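Morning run. Coffee first, then this:
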Amino acid sequence: MNILLAVDGSAYTKKMLAYLAAHDELLGSKHEYSVITVQAELPARARAALGKELVAKYYEDQGASVMNPVIKFLARHGVTAQCSYKTGKA
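And here it is:
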């Protein structure tokens, strides 16, 4: 089964992970997992003032701060996942 985990670092993300941990049939290496997080775009003026490299670094850092706890959780349960960081409207 392919399972998509949309995460944002909120309490809902934690509840979803707790649900997975409580349901062994959903958590395990027999499934394929994709994890995605979407960061809201900075305003155009801010992006222009900061420059492409700094904005890209900001998005990467924000995505990693949301994604890393999920990746660690999955790793503790022997699961690897494909991870995606996107920007825009969730």
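The chain is about 50% helix and 20% strand. Good start to the day.
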